[in-house]
From TrEMBL:
Signal peptide: none annotated. It is found in: Cell inner membrane; Cell membrane. This is Bcr/CflA family efflux transporter. One of its GO terms (cellular component) is plasma membrane. PROSITE patterns: MFS. The lineage of its organism: Bacteria, Pseudomonadati, Pseudomonadota, Alphaproteobacteria, Rhodobacterales. GO terms for molecular function: xenobiotic transmembrane transporter activity. Belongs to the major facilitator superfamily. Bcr/CmlA family.
Length: 398
């Protein structure tokens, strides 16, 4: 498959998880009223979605190594569609929670398989270009999804968003059947849980992989953690309507999109690696801005300006660090991509869960997101000290 086709398919696979999150978030305050429950219970529908998304990646990636990328994509997307339909029919908040877990499990294959596809076919600077293009396309979905979700909520009710998700899942299945070519030779001998355990142990004790993945976990994982805080801050504390909240999320996704475009141009002249340090500076600045929520009350600009700066930093960091983390692992690309995705999503899940226990979204965001920014920066400093071969060589293929 060409770079362009891999980029488009990879972006579609990656986007289904964040889009399913972004379409849904404007409805969270409405669900509190509809099911006559509490914000903490409704927050579980998002937290457990993350849980299914994060943990199932550890299975989806290795299954795709053993059985092929295409069949596993189709099976997991069918499970995602089943969860979407169950959500449409949900008579209670408990049923909706189960449906969201099924959606998270189904969507998990997208992250693991998209990155494995790239690793199967490309390992040099082309990989970073594809990761960057995936990021650009990925930004469009979450940028528009909250706005679409807010409009659909006010026009057709919250169930309509899950109808749209089911249709998106069907589109992914059609793409996998007709446009996605198989990139690995199926080998059922890889379905060995002892060998899989050894692979994961090897990855978690590999300092190169672990530090690179923690950079991504602290950077990109913050997006998922923020999604559990922002609806309650912007709609609850700032007072935005669901439609206004959806439109406000364009600041986050739009800044990521613009920064990704700028990075694509800069990568051609300077290489992906040189953008990581400036990106982490932006993440540090955004973290400091978010921490001021502990001092001054939230307003739209007070919240979204530092969030947007943080998002610009993520766009600079993600292409090179994703390539660097996966570069040494050819045969175990699916397992490595799964573990990297688990670390990324797991960090967001952990901080979102801690925030839910804290009970105050403003305080949680002001403390936990800066911690994630610090993890990204410290992990990169450690990565530079222990990585071999040098990162420039890993990313450029020298």
């Amino acid at each position: 498959m060409t770079e362009r086709r891999v980029s488009l398919i990879g972006a579609l696979l990656v986007a289904i998880g964040p889009v399913s999150m972004a379409l849904y978030t404007p409805a969270m305050t409405e669900l509190v009223r509809y099911f006559d429950t509490t914000p903490s219970v409704v927050n579980l529908t998002l937290t457990l979605y993350f849980g299914g998304f994060a943990c199932a990646q550890l299975i989806a990636g290795p299954l795709s190594d053993a059985l092929g990328r295409r069949p596993i994509t189709i099976i997991f997307m069918a499970l995602y569609c089943l969860g979407s339909i169950l959500a449409v029919l949900a008579p209670s908040i408990e049923t909706l929670i189960i449906a969201r877990v099924l959606q998270g499990v189904g969507a998990s294959a997208g992250v693991a398989i998209s990155r494995a596809l790239v690793r199967d076919l490309f390992t040099d600077d082309r990989s970073s270009r594809i990761m960057n293009l995936i990021g650009i396309i990925l930004a469009l979905g979450p940028a528009l999804a909250p706005t679409i979700g807010g409009v659909m909520l006010q026009s057709f009710g919250w169930r309509s968003t899950f109808v749209l998700m089911a249709l998106i899942g069907l589109i992914v299945i059609v793409v996998a059947i007709f446009l996605m070519k198989e990139t690995v030779v199926a080998d059922k001998s890889r379905l060995n849980f002892h060998a899989l355990g050894r692979n994961y142990k090897m990855l978690l004790t590999n300092k190169h992989f672990l530090t690179a993945s923690l950079v991504i976990g602290g950077a990109l994982g913050a997006i998922y953690a923020q999604s559990t805080f922002l609806p309650f801050i912007l709609m609850g504390d700032v007072g935005l309507s669901p439609t206004q909240f959806g439109a406000s999320m364009l600041a986050q996704s739009g800044s990521f999109f613009v920064a990704s475009l700028a990075c694509r141009s800069l990568m051609a002249r300077h290489g992906a690696y040189r953008l990581v340090a400036p990106g982490l500076v932006l993440i540090a600045i955004g973290s400091v801005g978010i921490s001021t929520l502990l001092i001054w009350p939230p307003s739209f600009l007070h919240v979204m300006v530092p969030v947007s700066i943080y998002s610009c930093g993520i766009a600079c960091v993600m292409p090179a660090m994703s390539t660097a983390a996966l570069a040494p692992f050819g045969r175990a690309a699916g397992a490595a991509a799964s573990m990297m995705g688990f670390i990324q999503m797991g960090s967001g899940l952990l901080m979102g869960s801690i925030g839910a226990v804290m009970g105050n979204a403003v305080v949680a965001m002001g403390i936990l997101i800066p911690i994630m920014g610090a993890v990204a920066c410290i992990s990169f400093l450690m990565f530079r000290k222990i990585s071999y071969p040098p990162m420039q060589e890993v990313v450029s293929g020298e």
